[in-house]
Amino acid sequence: MNDLARDGFAWIPSAYSSSDIASMILEVDSALASNSSSVLAGSRGPAYGARNLLRLWPHAIDWLKRCDPLVAMLRAALGPDAGIVRGLYFDKPPGHSWALPWHRDYTVAVQEHRAVSGFAKPTVKAGVPHLEAPEELLATMLTVRIHLDAMADDNGPLRVVPGSHRTALDATADARTLLCEAGDVLLMRPLLLHASGHSEATTARHRRIVHLECTSSPDLPGGLEWDRHLRID
C-alpha cells in the first residue's frame, strides 16, 4: 500500500486473464446496446463511454469480487465497509478519439440533492443527481480502473502527477505516463491530478476501461445518500 499512499495510485498487473477480459467486453457491449439512454456517443460515431454502469451492468461487482488481490487492496485501503458507489465506462474508439485536460475527480452520485455543508454544484447526469463532494470525503475514496485493452502511447494513455492527491499544487512538469496491458487494474485516489490525450489517428486500438468508484462508508452526512452502494464482501 506504500505506493498508493505516497503516489496516489497503484497497479495490480495481470489481475484478469485474457478470457476474463473477452467475457467482460461482451457483457459491457451487450449492456450498452440495450441501454442507449446512458451511453455517450457522437452523432456519427460509436459509443465512447457510459454513465450509470452499475445499473446497466450489475455484474460488474461480481467481476471485482472474483479478483482476490483487488479485494484485498480495497479492504486494506478502505476498511470493512468498502463498497462501490458509481460506475462509468470509457472507450477511445479508433478514429473517434477524445481527450481530457488536467483535472481531479470531485463529483459523486447521490439519490437526491440536499443543501449540506461542503457539497456544491448540483447537477443531473443521465437522470442521476450529482454533487461536488468535499475533499475530506474524496480523500477516503478509491477508484478502480479495469483495463480491457492495453494502454499504450498510441491510444491516449492516462497521465498522472504522483503525490498530487496530497497537495493543491498542480505541478504537471512532474507528470508520468501510465502504460499497461489488458487485464491490469489501476487503483487511484480521486484527488490525483490526471489527464489523457487523443489517440493517434492511425491506431487500431480501443482504450476501454471499466471505472468503479469505491468508498469506505455506506453513509453520507446531512441526510445525503449514495445513488448506489454495493458492498464488497
Low-pLDDT sequence parts: none
Distance between the termini: 20 Å
Shape: globular
Beta-strand content: 25-35%
Count helical runs: 6
Q: Can you summarize the main beta sheet?
A: 8 strands, antiparallel
Secondary structure: helix percent? 10-25%
Rg over CA atoms, rounded to whole Å, is 17 Å
Report mean pLDDT, rounded to a whole number: 93
Please trace the helix and strand order, writing H or E for each element: HEHEEHHHEEEEEHEEEEEEE
> Structural class given helices, strands, pairing?
alpha+beta
Total count of strands: 15
Which characteristics define this entry?
about 230 residues; alpha+beta; 8-stranded antiparallel β-sheet; 4-stranded antiparallel β-sheet; 6 helices; 15 strands
Secondary structure layout:
Blueprint lengths: L1 H6 L1 E4 L5 H16 L5 E3 L5 E4 L2 H4 L3 H6 L2 H11 L4 E8 L9 E4 L3 E3 L10 E6 L2 E5 L2 H4 L3 E6 L10 E3 L15 E3 L6 E4 L5 E3 L12 E7 L14 E2 L2
Antiparallel strand pairs: 1-12, 2-3, 3-4, 4-14, 4-15, 5-13, 6-8, 7-8, 9-12, 9-14, 10-11, 10-13
Structural commentary:
By secondary structure, the protein is an alpha+beta fold. It contains six helices and 15 strands. Strands 1, 2, 3, 4, 9, 12, 14 and 15 form an eight-stranded antiparallel β-sheet that branches. The protein has a four-stranded antiparallel β-sheet with strand order 5-13-10-11, with no helix packed on it. A hairpin with a 5-residue loop joins strand 2 and strand 3. The longest helix is centred in the first third of the chain and has 16 residues, at 18-33. The protein is globular. The two termini are 20 Å apart.
